[in-house]
Amino acid sequence: MAVVTNVMKPGRRIWRTLEPFLYLSPTIALLLILMVVPVGMVIQYSFLDNVIMNEFPKFVGLENYFTVIRDPIFQIAVKNTIYFTTGSVIAHLILGLSFAILLNSQLLGRYTRSIFRLIYILPWIFTVAIIAILWRMILDPVGVLNYWLIKLGFIESGVEWLASPKTALITVTVINIWAGYPFYMMSLLAGIQGISKDLYEAATVDGASWRQSFFNITLPQLKPIIISMSVLDIIWTSQQFAMVWMTTGGGPITSTQMIGIYTYQQAFGRYEFSLASTSAVLLLIFSVILSTIYGRIQSRQD
Amino acid sequence: MHNRGTGILKSRQIVIMALIATATMVFGYSAPARAASTVTISFSQWWEPELPAGALRSIIDTFEKQNSGIKVKLVSGPYSATKAQTIAGAATGTMSDVVGLDGAWVSDLAKQGALGSLDTALTRVKFPMSQLAGKIKVGTTTYMIPVVNYIYPLFTNDDLLKKAGVSSAPKTRTEFAAAAKAVSGLGGNVSGWVIPLSQTNPNGIQNDIMSLVWASGGSMLKSGKPNLTGNAEVKSVLTFVKGMWDAGSITPGAFTLAEPDKVTEFTNGRAGMMIDSLSHITQIKTATPNLNFSIHALPKADAYSGKGGIPYASWGIGVSKASKYPVQSAKLLAYLMSTPVNTKLADLGNAFPGNTKSVPTWVSKDPMFKTAFTIYQSGYPANEFTGLPKAEDLMLQFDIPFQKYLSGKLTIDAMLAEAQTAWLKNFKK
């Protein structure tokens, strides 16, 4: 019996190989133009003595990296960013989980839960500019927060929440916590609603308390979501610029200096675009490491 | 055998369409067709939002009628956004043909090679250079011309001063400190003096602090280089401000207060005095018509009796070196600097014209404006930051140690030494 084999012509074989990539070409083009090329240019800039202000930049190797890492202002920015990010992520998790559990409560009716869901999600809907303006007004030395604290006898005179080096960093952290917890809340709420009720019923039958159910059923079931959210939140929060810039500008003194603000000031204040690129690349390296960890966690879960 | 010919053909067509779509997306931008004789130039500035609605556009419309074949696209935004946009535009070669400039940006933009020579531009259109009240040069080339100048006099809330028992506006620093203390003593969220020391836009160092040095004939420079350490005039002003800070005479929250916040505090009757731009007079009167305020010369050092420098900020103008339409850009420049148009711009913003032949009519409209003109004539325009390298960074590098000094973290000498060291770095490059 003759065996008929489907022998492809070489041209058709090349075409078949290229076909999937050609379908992907619009996305690839966008990724190249909007991500790969700009990131590549910034990385390149970080190895030159100065770009844009200098018509003929020279290659300087890692000199910019040493300059940035040794800069006391950058060191302060790193320290503040770690404080800001750690505080924000932990508080986002605690608040998000608490509100998610509350919103999942069967003690409230459906409509009541919907209303509260809308209220709790509001901070996430506001843009950064609105959040900054709102909180600057609330926290003004003659603002509504100080008014009530004085009226209730907690303080004697207005506190400069955003203008005092002692309180500015924790204040912007609180603002960031307020602005970011809804993202955790909605993700964890979806996760909680996906946990099988059989597990809780079985636990109740076995005599488990609410606390035991929470630590032995709820948290383990939510672990993948919590880890994913935390990694993403660390990446986003460490890159925070707009909210801090619009509330304190990195001040007072250097108490709210962040890596994002340091990068901006290098570029648009000092016209040191190479040093700004270097700072941005350092943050990129950190984000890539975290993204790699995130990717590994995701593939393990799959 | 399954005939896949049709399927492959259809698949190939889809792929070709995807390729065409990608190519169109990447390369397919097409500029709108225009008549060969019409040219559109862009003019970026922060003036339009600060002038009465439609005023700048109307001036530009007249230019377009007088110059058929030239259209002007106004690119307007807030001051800080215009600065960032200008720097970014200069870097990417997309800067507007004509750019509104602040004196603090000129040195760095010129070094970047972003600005064209205005000597060349205005000579090209035969503009009489003798009519220019000022030119900002880097080296021997003019890169910016002040279109209009805003002086920064002292604003006083006369009702608050009267309530505090201050019968007249302070003329000396001692009187100023006493007036501020008296107003702060009124309580109820009222402070004597409001200053903006925010780092987002640290021009408070220029307009509110160094202005007091210039008002008494002092200088922060020596032969064009930083001269902060051991500078008696600068030290005197900073010590004076510290005294007022410690006495509680300055509005709380100054470290993160920006210039718009300063104006808001004054407009809302929570500050007795502020040093601010004449351009805000209309804004204050519109927002709070019942606010009883007046303007005065800046307080001088007690022992100083000479002519005082008056801080000013310019709405300056320049041209892009990379502009495809240098002649048309130069025509717009010449138009804005021409006597009638320059007078109109000065009148719209209550500013002083950049053309020596222009006589603003607003000076006789309102007694307050007459006072402003008298103040202007009695002193000399002073702004040492204009033309300095990385001028806004110099203000920031002064602001940070100054905040430390006010907080008690540094002595005055250590503060000046820290600022001097930071400033010298900018001058070395």
Task: Explain this structure.
The complex is a heterodimer of chains A (302) and B (429). Chain A is an all-alpha fold. Chain A contains 12 helices and no strands. Chain A starts with 9 loop residues before the first helix and ends with a helix. Helices cover 46% and strands 16% of the residues of chain B. In chain B, α6 crosses α13 (326-337), α9 crosses α10 (232-246) and α16 (391-406) runs antiparallel to α17. Chain B has helices spanning 5-27, 47-50, 55-66, 79-92, 103-111, 118-124, 158-163, 173-184, 204-215, 232-246, 259-267, 281-287, 326-337, 339-349, 367-378, 391-406, 412-428, and strands spanning 39-45, 70-76, 98-101, 136-138, 141-151, 154-157, 191-193, 221-222, 225-226, 271-275, 293-296, 309-319, 352-353, 380-382. Chain B is α/β, with parallel strands linked by helices and 429 residues long. Chain B has 2 domains: 39-149 and 314-368, 3-Layer(aba) Sandwich (D-Maltodextrin-Binding Protein, domain 2); 154-296 and 389-428, D-Maltodextrin-Binding Protein, domain 2 (3-Layer(aba) Sandwich). The chains are: A mainly alpha (302), B alpha/beta (429). Chains A and B meet through α1, α10 and α11 of A and α1, α4 and α16 of B.
